[in-house]
Amino acid sequence: MEAGVSGEGDEKVDFELPEIKYVCYGGEHHLPLIMSLVDQELSEPYSIFTYRYFVYLWPQLSFLAFHKEKCVGTVVCKMGEHRSTVRGYIAMLVVIKPYRGKGIATELVSRSIRVMQESGCDEVALEAEVTNKGALALYGRLGFIRAKRLFRYYLNGVDAFRLKLLFPQPQIHPTLLQAAQENSIQISSETSKESH
Ligand SMILES: CC(C)(COP(=O)(O)OP(=O)(O)OC[C@H]1O[C@@H](n2cnc3c(N)ncnc32)[C@H](O)[C@@H]1OP(=O)(O)O)[C@@H](O)C(=O)NCCC(=O)NCCS
């Protein structure tokens, strides 16, 4: 995901956070809203096929933020098997300028991440321009680590960081561990008896 470019209408808007409503992708009527926000704010061009690929296959992972009737932010994601893990992937994240700095992006991303975790993902990944301080700070606060630097990743020639969030593995209960140990001791003593 690449850095933002200058959009129109940067004037500050007065609003209270409870006025922001978050909705999951709900069908074709949401598509132009997502496209207009992403086209306006991200430097990398996406075709309608790319948008459709994400929202048709993983509608449950994309969210929109509305202030009154206006769409002010969106997140678009996917998930699937990656090597031996199940990986969630954040493809696009945008909040329009007058609404930034209030936690809207954090809320959008957190909703997607929650669904990914509930759906069995082991990790979440994304790419961000190395110069995109806002996005790097946001994801850093959410616990993402910088896994890799990707040389000249974007059309504009800028490098990217691959960021990753690893979900904690479920704890194995100590009694199960003890039972497994006892079982293996028993098996090894039986094997040694047999060999005598
Ligand atoms: C990045 C972006 C989505 C952040 O949206 P936002 O709604 O302002 O983000 P939040 O309010 O949830 O920010 C949460 C945290 O992110 C960090 N952050 C966000 N924008 C920042 C900025 N411009 N500079 C520094 N830190 C920033 C801060 O740690 C902030 O925490 P704080 O509340 O303690 O200051 C928004 O700036 C944007 O749409 N940018 C253009 C598109 C883009 O770059 N998308 C990401 C591509 S990887």
Written description of the protein model:
The chain has about 200 residues and is of the alpha+beta class. About 35% of the residues lie in helices and about 30% in strands. It has five helices and seven strands, in the order E-H-H-E-E-E-H-E-H-E-E-H. It has a seven-stranded mixed sheet with strand order 1-2-3-4-5-7-6, sandwiched between helices. Helix 3 (about 105-120) links the parallel strand 4 (about 85-95) and strand 5 (about 125-130). The longest helix is centred in the C-terminal third of the chain and has 21 residues, at about 175-195.
Features:
seven-stranded mixed β-sheet; alpha+beta; binds coenzyme A; 196 residues
Question: How do the strands and helices of this protein lay out in sequence?
Answer:
Elements (H helix, E strand, L loop, with lengths): L19 E5 L6 H11 L6 H10 L5 E5 L2 E13 L2 E11 L8 H15 L4 E7 L3 H9 L3 E6 L9 E7 L7 H21 L2
Parallel strand pairs: 4-5
Antiparallel strand pairs: 1-2, 2-3, 3-4, 5-7, 6-7
GO cellular component, one term: NatC complex
Protein name: N-acetyltransferase domain-containing protein
Pfam families: Acetyltransf_1
